[in-house]
Amino acid sequence: MTLWTATDAAAATGGTVAGDWAAGALSIDSRAIRPGEMFVALKAARDGHDFVADALAKGAAAALVSRIPDGVDPARCLLVNDVQTGLEALGRAGRARTGAKVIAITGSVGKTSTKEMLAHALSPQGRTHAAIKSYNNHWGVPLTLANCPPDADFAVIEIGMNHPGEIAPLARHARPHVAMVTTVAPVHLEAFADGIEGIAREKASIFEGLEPNGAAIWNADVETAAILAERGTIPFGHSEDAIWRLTDLNAGPNAVTCAAETPDGTLAFRVGAPGGHFALNALAVLAACHAAGADVPQAAMALADWTPPEGRGRRHSVPLAPDAPPVDLIDDAYNANPASVAAALDLLAGTEPPRRARRIAILGDMKELGPTGPALHADLAELPAMSDLDEVHTVGPLMRHLHDALPADMRGHHTETSGAMTKYLPDMVRPGDAVMVKGSLSMDMARIVEGVRALARR
């Protein structure tokens, strides 16, 4: 399928083309480029122009560049003044030409899982385009829009932030028909002098991009609900004020069943992953489906076989010995903040390992919490879920504060790096244990997940 011709891309960006080519998608990663895609030579930690030749050698149809690299055929380039600006122009053009109902999602916790859940719920009802991975920033949003097929029925856009003033421009770029705030929690506190209230205002700014008569879905359970309510129109949650209200929740080992009151009456649904936080996100997903004109009962049926993405609560069964129960590994290693760690610990505490097996948490530093970071790490020791755990192992200088705050009989190993923690895994993990791994992305907790899974191959 052709997504961009050379002529269309030049017209959208005001750029220059010297050849005739057609691209089926855009990519920023020369390592994963596929034949027929356009490589976008962004300047970030490294200059993407250094990888244009490699991308074209791998079969890229063209490259979006601000200069022609040495040895590269100009006929295979779209030359613009600035690559980021050119990408944004392609995003605006992609948004303008699609007939899709656009749904934008932000929140301190659960953006990517909710995005994946919503795409899963909508896919049976029409062609659904969604952001890949966590492409939710100043280049991720326009990239997602530029990759949107003109004939898509639904488009799901994820919008993130780590400083004030970031969300509104991205929301105006996406021009959603439906916008959602999953939750507000103490994340990126070091960038917000006014604390969680400032975070709530930043999250609510997603509603500034709504199309006329658009739907603004917000979490009515958070302590900053009043700030969201100033702009939001459709509250969801357990709260009596919620239009979409969760009235019953039963968490099993592999799924959670729910009941909710909705504008169309009572609705029962099942989510194919355990955890109360997934149930609440699913309720928001169904509210978004309703606002986008999709069939809600059909969307609810689709949620029954949804599973979380890698690193965001996906479970793995890891056999360690013949005829012994496997390890129940919960991979939540992609990111962490106080709210998401609390939800993950609740999930771990609710597991039922076999007799004599244990519930074990391996936690890495939660980053970008500013001066409150040490206290917020130590405060994790007071969470109710901690009383149901057997061992807590910690990674990183900030998690040392949790390590010191834990009761001695619960205190496990502490290391400064995830690599150092992997050395303890063979003696730390036993058959039947439930093991949850979580930490901020820079802590590389995925290395520990892979270390546990590798125990099965020993």
Low-confidence stretches: none
What is the CATH C level class of the largest domain, in words? Answer: Alpha Beta
Task: Write the CATH fold name of the largest domain.
Answer: UDP-N-acetylmuramoyl-L-alanine:D-glutamate ligase
Amino-to-carboxy terminus distance: 45 Å
Strand order of the largest sheet: 9-10-8-11-12-13-14-15-16
Largest beta-sheet details: 9 strands, mixed
| Count of strand segments | 22
- Helix percentage: 25-40%
Structural class: alpha/beta
Structure explained in plain terms:
Residues 26-67 form the Mur ligase N-terminal catalytic domain. It is a single chain. The chain has 458 residues and is an alpha/beta fold. It folds into three domains: 4-81, MurE/MurF, N-terminal domain (Udp-n-acetylmuramoylalanyl-d-glutamate--2,6- Diaminopimelate Ligase, Chain: A, domain 1, 3-Layer(aba) Sandwich), CATH 3.40.1390; 98-303, Mur-like, catalytic domain (UDP-N-acetylmuramoyl-L-alanine:D-glutamate ligase), CATH 3.40.1190.10; 314-457, Mur ligase, C-terminal domain (Protein-Tyrosine Phosphatase, Chain A, Alpha-Beta Complex), CATH 3.90.190.20. It has 16 helices and 22 strands. It has helices at 6-13, 52-57, 83-97, 111-122, 140-146, 167-174, 195-204, 225-229, 276-291, 296-303, 338-349, 373-379, 399-405, 418-422, 425-428, 446-454, and strands at residues 4-5, 16-17, 22-23, 25-27, 37-40, 62-65, 77-79, 101-106, 128-130, 154-158, 178-181, 215-219, 234-237, 244-251, 256-262, 265-271, 314-318, 327-332, 359-364, 391-395, 411-415, 434-438. The strands form four sheets. The protein has a nine-stranded mixed sheet with strand order 9-10-8-11-12-13-14-15-16, sandwiched between helices. Strands 17-18-22-19-20-21 form a six-stranded mixed sheet, sandwiched between helices. Helix 4 (111-122) crosses helix 9 and helix 12 packs parallel to helix 13. The chain is globular. The two termini are 45 Å apart.
